[in-house]
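Need residues for this backbone.
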């Protein structure tokens, strides 16, 4: 099927940030620090999907994979159970890659070149899948912990050893919940360990290029399904509105310590994230309100300091970010939701992937 493509460009204003919205303001620069390429603009390049964009990630061949979540409350007829799209930057074509996707959400390509898939609730698989992009062979990595079903895996990443880190928190769906909202690690031998259980509603997750830090985005929304298994309170007080970003020291054994709040916003909440090779973290934030959508994109350096804002086009929900690869490694891609759309902007940085 020939996808519907729509191209539109937006200028990129680099605006100052008010310190009143941040947990810590020391080190914030007063001007651009060299993230976006000179004269760069956000460009809308595809509206192939239908509803809720997520999970943009590049494979080793440079093609991108993106999720399209199909909430049953929004899509009552002809609901496919979610779709994974594949976009080729060389041709500008977007084609269906996997449908149904089990309500796929976050996507990640690990050092082996495999596509790792989080499947959410609302009729989804509630699991982590591994899919070989050459053969299409697909296996379940994990769908339970200590004999109880996962709630709704949301996002995931991996480290240089191949260990997987994922968040499990309920955002949509009415299926019973057996486990608290939490963050887990899957070792290369398949052992699953819960490593964080005191964040109210974890979302995006990233490992730094040097493997020494783990970042977790947290939503403070109390209007979404509340997990009866907890946690009722967030360690950093994020519950109750907006959201925050937490950073941890990551040990050589995959353990976490020294958790600290890096960002706190009451107007928008962090969602998906990505990293460049210099260790800068790119965070997509939005207010989750399709009737009055607001989004933002901020960049933090390896010290957790805000260094730049990449203002998105106005009036959109900025959900997820990911860099291209190869000759496209300097392109930052962004997913929007309600409706689904894929954007890109040229940068002077290169995206990080463990090889």
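Answer:
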């Amino acid at each position: 099927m020939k996808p519907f493509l729509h191209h539109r460009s937006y200028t990129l204003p680099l605006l100052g940030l008010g310190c009143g919205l941040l947990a810590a303001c020391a080190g914030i620069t007063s001007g651009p620090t060299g993230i976006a390429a000179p004269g760069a603009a956000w460009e809308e390049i595809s509206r192939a999907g239908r509803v809720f964009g997520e999970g943009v990630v590049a494979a080793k061949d440079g093609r991108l994979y993106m999720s399209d979540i199909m909430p049953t409350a929004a899509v009552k007829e002809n609901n496919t159970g979610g779709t994974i799209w594949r976009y080729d930057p060389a041709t500008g074509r977007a084609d269906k890659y996997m449908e149904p996707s089990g309500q796929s959400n976050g996507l990640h390509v690990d050092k082996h070149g495999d596509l790792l898939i989080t499947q959410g609730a609302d009729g989804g698989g509630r699991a982590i899948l591994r899919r070989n992009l050459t053969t299409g062979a697909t296996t379940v990595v994990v769908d339970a912990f200590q004999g109880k079903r996962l709630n709704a895996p949301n996002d995931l990443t991996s480290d240089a050893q191949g260990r997987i880190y994922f968040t499990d928190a309920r955002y949509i769906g009415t299926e019973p919940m057996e486990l608290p909202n939490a963050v887990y690690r899957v070792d290369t031998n398949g052992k699953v360990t819960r490593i964080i259980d005191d964040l109210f509603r974890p979302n995006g997750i990233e490992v730094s290029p040097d493997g020494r830090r783990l970042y977790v985005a947290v939503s403070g929304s109390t209007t979404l399904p509340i997990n009866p298994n907890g946690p009722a309170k967030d360690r950093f007080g994020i519950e109750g509105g907006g959201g925050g970003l937490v950073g941890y020291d990551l040990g050589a054994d995959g353990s976490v310590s020294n958790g600290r709040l890096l960002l706190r916003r009451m107007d928008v909440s962090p969602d998906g994230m990505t990293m460049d090779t210099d260790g800068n973290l790119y965070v997509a934030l939005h207010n989750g309100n399709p009737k009055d959508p607001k989004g933002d994109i901020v960049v933090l350096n390896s010290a957790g300091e805000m260094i730049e804002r990449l203002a998105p086009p106005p009036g959109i929900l900025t959900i997820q970010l990911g860099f291209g690869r190869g000759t496209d490694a300097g392109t930052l891609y962004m997913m929007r939701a309600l409706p689904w759309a894929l954007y890109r902007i040229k940068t002077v940085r290169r995206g990080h992937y463990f090889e």
